C-alpha cells in the first residue's frame, strides 16, 4: 500500500481580534492529526490562540493567467475611495 | 536532612519525567515522519521542563549547596526512583506510543490530585503540568487508536507493545512508605485511589482501538525502590556521561 | 506555445523579477526557474533534516538539563525548518515523498558539513557558532529572494535561527572560561570545524557554475567568495574573545583591504566529501533511510485509520 499523508494548509490566529492568517502547510493523515501537527509545528513559540486546517485539495484558487479580467477592472473604480470626493477643508469629521 | 521524606518524594516525581524525556530525546531525528518527530520532541521538552522545576525545588528542600544538575546527573542507579515503565526502550514506534499513553493516563490522574497538595510549590507545578500532560495524553491516545485500528501489521505491533508494557502498569500505584507518609500529611497523593479510574480509562481506549486488554496477574515492581530493569544502566551511562567524565565543571 | 511566445513570456518574467516583484507558485515561470528552485530549496530542506543527526547525537549526553532542553529545541527547530522548506518546494508541484526519494537514493545533495562527526560536546558549540553562523550569512539574503514561498519560509527560518548561533557561542564561551581540559576541547573543536565551515560557503567563484543565473533570480545576492570573506571577517574577532586560535597560519589582518587574508582551502577534501566519501556520508544516509523505512508501517496505519474513520462518517450520514 503506497498512500502518502495528504497536504494541509494551516491558518493561525495570533491573538483574539486578529484574523486567521495562512502560516504554511504540513502533512497529516487526518484532520485531528493535522491540528495537532499544526500546533507543534507552527505555534511552538507561542504564535497562536486558534488554528484552522484545511486539506489543500479543497482550496480553489484563482488562476493568475486570468488576473487581467479578474482584478484590473477594479483599478479604475476610483469613486469607491473617499479621496475621490472633494470637500472644503472646513468640513470636519467626515 | 530535615525534609528527607519530601526530598525523596520530589525525586520520585521528577525521575519519571526525566527518564521518559530522555527516552523521547533519543528519538529526535529518527521518527516515522518530520511531524511526529516535532511532536515527540515537544513532549520531551515539556517533561524536561517539569524535571527542572522539581529538581530545583528538591535542591532547595535538601538544604544543601546542590543544583538541579547534581540531582539529575550524580546519583547511583539505585538512587533513581522512576517507575520501570518509563525506562523501557524505544523498541519500535508502537512501544513509544504505548509507553507514552500508559504513563500519560496515570500522569494526568496523578497531577489532578497533586494540585490539591498542601505544599504550594508542588501544587503549582501540578497545575502547570496538567495542561501539558492533557495534551500528551491526547496525542498518545490518538496514536494508540491509529496504530491499533490501522492496518493488520500495525494492529499486531501495537498489541505486542501493549502486552509487553502492561506488566509495568501496576507499579504506578504502588505506595512506598514515603508515599504513605506524604499522603497522610496532605502533601502527596494516595495512588491507590487512582487505580480503578486508570484501568477503566485505559481499557476503554484500548477497546476503541480494537486492541485486547491484557489479562495479567503478575506485575513487575522495583523502580520506586531503585531496583531497575537492565535497560536503565545504559540509559544512565548516556545521561551521566559528561558529568562523570568531567567532574566538577560548569557547562 | 511557439518559441517566440515563450521568449516573450520569459522577458516579461525577468522584468518582473528585476522590478523586485515576487513570483508565486501558480504564476507562469520558465521551466529552468522551476527546476533550479526545486533543486535549491530541496537541497536546503535536506540539509536541515540531515543536520539534525550530528547534533541529535548529543541530546542524550548533554552535560546539563539546561543544555539538554536548548539542544532538543534547536534540533526540533531544524525539523521545523526542513518542513517549511519542503512545503515551499511542494508548491512547485513536487511531493515531499518524491523529494525524500531523491535524498534517500543519493541523487539529491545536502550540505557537506553534516558529513563530519560530532565527537565531543564542544562540537555542539562549534556547530552552533560556526555552522549556523555560516548558514545565517547564506540565508539572510534569501528572505528577499524572488520566489514568494521560499522567501516566506526563509523569513520564518531566520527569525527562529537567531537563537541557534547564540546558544552555540555560549557553549564555547562557557568552555573557554572553564578548566584547561574544557578549553582544550573548545580549541580542538574549532580546529576540526573551521575549514569545513569555510567550505560550506561553496566553491570559489571561478568554479561555481550557478552563480550568474542565481544572482539574476535573487537566489544569491553575493558570490561565494564574498560570503566567505564576510564570514571570516566576522568570526575571527569572535574567536579572539573566546581566546582560542583559528587554525590557519596564513590568517592575517590586511589593513589595506580592511579584511583578513587567509590560507588555501583544501578543495580536494571538499570534493571528496561532496562525492560521498566524507567521514559520515554513509552513516547519515543509513540513519535517514532507516528511520523512513522503520516508519512505513506507522504512516500506512495512520492513512488506513483515517480512511476507516472517513467511511464510518459517510455511512453514518447516509
Protein described:
- The complex is a heterotrimer of chains A (94), B (251) and C (318).
- Chain A is of the alpha+beta class and 94 residues long.
- Chain A contains two helices and three strands, in the order E-E-H-E-H.
- Chain A has a domain at 2-60: Phenylacetic acid degradation B (Ubiquitin-like (UB roll)).
- In chain A, a hairpin with a 7-residue loop joins strand 1 (7-13) and strand 2 (21-27).
- Chain A is elongated, with a radius of gyration of 21 Å.
- Chain B is mostly helical.
- Chain B is 66% helix and 0% strand.
- Chain B is globular.
- Helix content of chain C is 68%, strand content 2%.
- Chain C starts with a helix and ends with a helix.
- Chain C is globular and about 75 Å long.
- In chain C, helix 2 (31-56) runs antiparallel to helix 3, helix 3 (65-90) packs antiparallel against helix 6 (148-176) and helix 5 (121-139) packs parallel to helix 7.
- The mean pLDDT of chain C is 95.
- Chain C is mostly helical and 318 residues long.
- Chains in contact: A-B, A-C, B-C.
- At the B-C interface, helix 1, helix 2, helix 3, helix 6 and helix 7 of B face helix 2, helix 3, helix 11 and helix 12 of C.
Write down how many β-strands of chain C occur, each being a DSSP E stretch of 2 or more residues.
2
Rounded mean pLDDT score of chain C:
95
What characterizes the major β-sheet of chain B? Answer: none
Total number of beta strands of chain B: 0
Which two chains form the greatest contact, residue counts included? Answer: B-C, 47 and 50 residues
What's the layout of helices and strands?
The complex is a heterotrimer of chains A (94), B (251) and C (318).
Chain A: E1 7-13, E2 21-27, H1 31-42, E3 50-55, H2 67-71
Antiparallel strand pairs in A: 1-2, 1-3
Chain B: H1 4-27, H2 34-62, H3 68-73, H4 84-87, H5 93-114, H6 120-148, H7 152-166, H8 177-184, H9 195-208, H10 231-239, H11 241-245
Helix pairs in contact in B: 1-2, 1-8, 2-6, 5-6, 5-7, 5-9, 6-7
Chain C: H1 3-18, H2 31-56, H3 65-90, H4 96-104, H5 121-139, H6 148-176, H7 180-199, H8 211-216, H9 224-242, E1 252-254, E2 259-261, H10 267-277, H11 281-294, H12 296-317
Antiparallel strand pairs in C: 1-2
Helix pairs in contact in C: 2-3, 3-6, 5-6, 5-7, 5-9
